[in-house]
């Protein structure tokens, strides 16, 4: 329920001459300390109009304000502090959640509009980096959040499956590669070949010429080149799929860079017809000086198209195919210039819909404060990270709950969930440090803590072994329950915030808060005691588990029933 709305309506009636309902609503604050009530109205907003001291206004308003959902009103300094009727509000909120279950907080802002989400997008023949992991899990959570507010997300893996590196790989493979090795460990072997190519090319520049020639062959559709490319791509993709399976993440499309090969000519033609192409030392560019950006490099002097050319084709293709309401690109912050250029070129082409494209950038994952980089071969292999997280979770389960059924499965849900949750709980633009030991702890601000809280709630419900009755009064009047209820009631608002900011961390932080409030409640209340509020308390426990599960689901994290 929107109790702010009720308070705003009641206050507005009293100040109708001076403020509109919207103004009152906007002015309402949530006091920092619960002792100051649940909602506060700053009376100084009326001081000028009424020509009175704010304290006096607060006093008068406090005296007049009354409603069934309001327990008491206190003027504190220039504020009118409203204390809600805990019993009445709790009753309403718990009824709402009991009726709507996981649908609580669902909205229809999107009106079913399509939203392509460009996410994950690793490069063939290279390992998925921690940066790609971020893109994958943030993109997936955003897709869930967009869906929750009524959009139709389309998850697109824009694979890096084209480019001059394939010329290098082919040369390296033909010189030093072996089929068995590639089959056994595709990404490792292809990366090794790639690294060796660079090392040897330093000494022998002819290799670079050969690589260029092989890439040219590939572009021209040479059979051998195409065959090797297809093979490298499918072997790599199979490795990537293992990780996506572990994460439980699926895609609607794997149209990567190569998909746009036959769409390049049209892009160049469009740009040419718009009269915005210029030549610069043999290269073909779009000047973006009026946007204060570097020129967009469309074609190299040898005619090869570039990253941005493919993104132009992709953007146009997505608009035509999906007629999107919004188009998202979940890609690291370091590419923000690229996406500015992309939008600018589309605007130069006269496409207003470029405004609906949003780059959703994110920061780096560091270790011991240092950037992780692929170049120096210091890649953390994601699969290893997820396996290690699972092992560490299993260790904790063995300590805490050694007799748990299907321990392995739960350990996987907890270990993988821990890594995903840790990634999502930080504001996406912040860089953050990754320390696996810390990430998988059952205590602290971690995914396992939230999962554990949910499992604990479910275990209370199992112990109670009671049919929950929602046809009756569910009013509870205790301070710890109240903190929980207020948070539960806030869930729809949290989802809207997460959606508006493209920020899954809002949901992750919320699930931590709700878990903390619930654990406080549980620590201070005898939930199972047989009295006339037992049913209401159990309905509260059930509501908490419902919302924690829904929150975790939105983040792409599983909720094991027992752990
Ligand atoms: N493959 C690129 C990389 O690893 C990311 C692609 C992002 N998506 C896009 N449409 N440009 O850096």
From TrEMBL:
Domain named DALR anticodon binding: residues: 450-563
SUPFAM superfamilies assigned to the protein according to its UniProt record, in alphabetical order: Anticodon-binding domain of a subclass of class I aminoacyl-tRNA synthetases (SSF47323), Arginyl-tRNA synthetase (ArgRS), N-terminal 'additional' domain (SSF55190), Nucleotidylyl transferase (SSF52374)
Root EC class: ligase
GO biological process annotation, one example: arginyl-tRNA aminoacylation
Keywords attached to this entry: Aminoacyl-tRNA synthetase, ATP-binding, Cytoplasm, Ligase, Nucleotide-binding, Protein biosynthesis
Residues spanned by motif 'HIGH' region: 122-132
Pfam families reported in the protein's UniProt record: Arg_tRNA_synt_N, DALR_1, tRNA-synt_1d
A GO molecular-function descriptor: arginine-tRNA ligase activity
InterPro entries: Arg-tRNA-ligase, Arg-tRNA-synth_N, Arg-tRNA-synth_N_sf, ArgRS_core, DALR_anticod-bd, Rossmann-like_a/b/a_fold, tRNAsynth_Ia_anticodon-bd
Oligomeric form and interacting partners: Monomer.
Protein's recorded name: Arginine--tRNA ligase
Organism: Trichococcus palustris
